[in-house]
Amino acid sequence: MILNTESAIKIAESLLQIKAIKLNPTSPFQWASGWNSPIYCDNRKTLSYPPVRTFIRQQFADAIKEHFPNVEVIAGVATGGIAHGALVAEALGLPFAYIRSSSKGHGMQNLIEGDIFKDQKVVVIEDLISTGGSSLKAVDALREHGCDVLGMVAIFTYGFDLARKNFEDSQCKLITLSDYNAMLGVAVNNNYVSESAMESLSEWRTSPHTWDPSK
């Protein structure tokens, strides 16, 4: 679920303006999974724009206060969730830690960096949700560590059915600040894409693994 429609639209506008989101339905990008995609999203770019960064931080903080008021620790998912998570933890006056994508290959071989203790209530910060696979690995790592993961808050989601199922199966509540539907409306209204491209963009979100822009 998104936090609220007004802020979702504002964030979508910002992501398109700073080119954190790029749309190209006729000459798609290719993801590591092999999927063709008409959208490329890099929310780390928001960190370079203080007004955007500050608004996103405040929306994160508001979402956590509303949905997870008992949180004790903020945890960011490497790499995109680290900086945003630290900003949110600072805003809320809470401890911060982050979860690596894999254990460090030397020293203590940590997967979780920072002090998080058994039974602490944790909210996870992520920058982008696609299928949810890598994000939920971080949730699993925290649960294996003995933490009580209250849920996850992310900047943006594509809204794939697969992601919804993965979060439901993992019993992890997901809140997002903006999403693909909000972005599509902004993109058409502000002439980032034509109305004729909307059908193709909508088809991709429905079946990204079979989407073919030439058809």
List keywords for this structure.
215 residues, two-stranded antiparallel sheet, 10 strands, alpha/beta, Rossmann fold, 6-stranded mixed beta sheet
Q: Give the topology string: H per helix, E per strand.
A: HEEEEHEHEEEHEHEHH
Rg, rounded, reads 17 Å
Low-confidence segments, given as residue ranges, are none
How is the main sheet built?
A: 6 strands, mixed
At CATH level 3, the topology is Rossmann fold
Number of helices: 7
How many beta-strand runs? 10
Number of domains: 1
| Average pLDDT number | 92
Structural class: alpha/beta
What is the CATH top level name?
A: Alpha Beta
The CATH architecture name reads 3-Layer(aba) Sandwich
- In helices, the fraction of residues equals 40-55%
**Distance between the first and last residues' Cα:** 31 Å
Based on CA inertia axes, which overall geometry fits? globular
Side-by-side strand order of the widest sheet: 7-6-5-8-9-10
- Roughly what fraction of the amino acids lie in strands? 15-25%
